[in-house]
Structures
1.
Amino acid sequence: MRALIVDDSKTVRMVLGKSLREIGFDVLEAEDGQKAIERLYQGDTVDLLLVDWNMPVMNGYDLVCAVRANILLNDIRIMMVTTESSMEHVQKALAAGANEYLMKPFTKDLLLEKLTLMGML
């Protein structure tokens, strides 16, 4: 399985990447939604996107909308991983097509639980 971590924080990408690699994922990274879209349109195939909400250039919500608007990318599972904790943000992300929502800070166990709920483990 292959995951693309989309977060403007190098530290968050490193922490998520370490956890995902430990359970067998091949991990790619992008610093913002625009770079993630470019990777996907240039042929990088992924099974899972882990997306921060607040990023420069293209935020996570707009990325989720763009991925879900492209029928060729519909099989990608999406987890929002963000500090945005309001129920409004959760509902908006899920309505846009995110499959799960994980709030920062998180533990590896909580990440694994969400991946299990998504059918990724």
2.
Amino acid sequence: MLEAEVTITVPFHDLDPMGVVWHGNYARYLEIARCALLERIDYNYPRMGEEGFAWPVVEMRIKYVGPLRFGQQAKVTARLVSWENGMKIDYLIHDAASGALLTRARTFQVPVSLATGEMSLESPPELLRRLKDTP
């Protein structure tokens, strides 16, 4: 399985009035890990656009197990679990110090033709080639 891990340090501006990370900011943490994952196969967002596709997130699920707090370091892991008809990516967020699981998430993205605006029912050949060529 293709995966990537990034470490984030929770900034003050991500907190809600209760002193924990506001739930909407988790999407940004997932995006940081997803970008690192896509870089592993040299299929980042500019490359997708050059090849004629946008990849909007059409589904996102998040299970908050424990809070993230200011200054806390967390490891965010993104793992590509399906790619034939879009990209399904699973995420785990762990406390960097203790290893405690804090969040589980999943996103699903679909290829959309930039020329027509239509969703493709299968992943573009270029993505499949890059995944095949990745050790």
